[in-house]
């Protein structure tokens, strides 16, 4: 969809459509961790897209921000299975399964992913990469759902971006990470959810977005 077509549609947009949060602490973000639940998510998106009209933006709806994942212990929670990291959960070492007595040693998933999460002491850089992967997956799944729904000329698809409660450089870097990662799968728009409802938070977020866009705008490079 061209930028002019998107601007035209945005001027007519009357509704933003989101999927309902789950009862899990991650409110639906956990659906990105396994292929079986990613398929459930894909179907939910497809249902939303099928019901929506051309004046609607259907969003990814999932909070993949580093702050959110950190708050809900995603980076260290060994009880959550996933298939998007290098090692099988809990088996990135030598050990014995407490239930079966089976010995294991650095068992990999062999699915092309390089992150080693969950584990203790995950660095900030690793958190950014994993958060970015979750964002990239969510946008990709939403676009796949649009293709399956056959609604290319129907509703737009939007990547949900979440600001943190703090206004530190840490928060700014997390915001930039979401935008860059989401852009890899080319959503039509970004839908920014601002923490807090006061005018100061909104004004600060707008300033941060301008700073990020200016920093990442295309530049001419002399050869």
Question: Can you give a write-up of this model?
Answer:
Strand 1, helix 2 and strand 2 (56-59) form a beta-alpha-beta unit. Helix 2 crosses helix 4 (124-149). The chain has helices at residues 3-12, 35-51, 66-71, 124-149, 169-183, 199-215, and strands spanning 15-17, 56-59, 94-96, 103-105, 156-162, 189-193. The model has no long low-confidence stretch (mean pLDDT 88). The protein has six helices and six strands. It is of the alpha/beta class and 223 residues long. Strands 1-2-5-6 form a four-stranded parallel sheet. Strands 3-4 form a two-stranded antiparallel sheet.
What is the topological layout?
Blueprint: H1 3-12, E1 15-17, H2 35-51, E2 56-59, H3 66-71, E3 94-96, E4 103-105, H4 124-149, E5 156-162, H5 169-183, E6 189-193, H6 199-215
Parallel strand pairs: 1-2, 2-5, 5-6
Antiparallel strand pairs: 3-4
Helix pairs in contact: 2-4, 4-5
